[in-house]
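Q: Convert this sequence to structure tokens.
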Amino acid sequence: MAGFLGMFNYAKEGPGVAKNAPKKRPFFAFMEIYGRKFWKLAMAGLLWTVTALPIVTRGWADAGLTFITRNFSREKHAFIKEDFFETVKKNRRNALIIGIINTIVTTILIFNLVTYIPVMMPGLYTLVGVAAENLPAARELNLMETIILALSLMGFVTFTWMKYYIPFLMITFKLNLKQVYKNAFLFAGANIKVNLLLTAILTVLYALLGGILMLSAAAKFNYLIWAAVLVLCVSVVPAFRSFLIQYSIFPAIKKLIIDPYYEQNPNADRQARLDLGLDVEETTAPAETAEEAEEVKPVEEEPIFVDTLPEKEVDAPKKVLPKQYNEKELRRFNRQVQSRVTDDDDDTI
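A:
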């Protein structure tokens, strides 16, 4: 938003849906949009994987993919490669820093969980195929270890929910790093139902892929299945995850940030609203009385082009012949010029 939202004002295609058409249920609308954009999303997911491979550039990859999936979820157009890298370019500093911070924090939290959970619940790891001899001896945690485990578990859940919002906030609003994390933390607590639903869906998805790999390993490594899962993991899964998140979190962001802003600034950032797929209504309030209606007059816009020629010549000056010609000689000269033009005109350039 110019002055508020950091939008890129491209001329985008609209959703192509009638204005008064009945809205579909969120689930069916999600499936319809995802089905139409499946191959483009898969291409964007593959681009994300290639960009995120160095790990330190994960923030750049998240920024580019989020722009694509945010636009698609709002039924707005996006060029896969061009918009991906343009978004990375526009947010390269913040995206890089945020990617590094997210990686470090997530690594610390996972390390704490992996360190202390096997001590309390070794059976949980044996269920997923970890040999008992590779686990630490079961014992009760002391007070400090219990506090660290509890804080790490709470932090991991909260930070996972924050990461649903961080890329969207970064590329959509003009916020500094502190404001991005602060707002993401607020949304992690204010939108718990959606966060829980997203976590459940993604957990089931990852568990399903992991289960397929385990079953394939038990069947003497069916490489065809492994190849199929690998293709899903590098293209379909990243784009599906991002598309699902952007589609799900937008209503809360619209309600808590975008709508209050436009209530205070009704005439601001029309193009930004169009880029987000929001309805742009006339800002002139309806007149409540006949007197007010008479006072409301349409504002005449200043024309861009002004015709400086008069519609009708008035008192046009008469032709003044050169002194060396009389009127008869001038008419003869004009006929000769006209005949030359007609003979030479062959309709070519």
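The chain has a mean pLDDT of 78.
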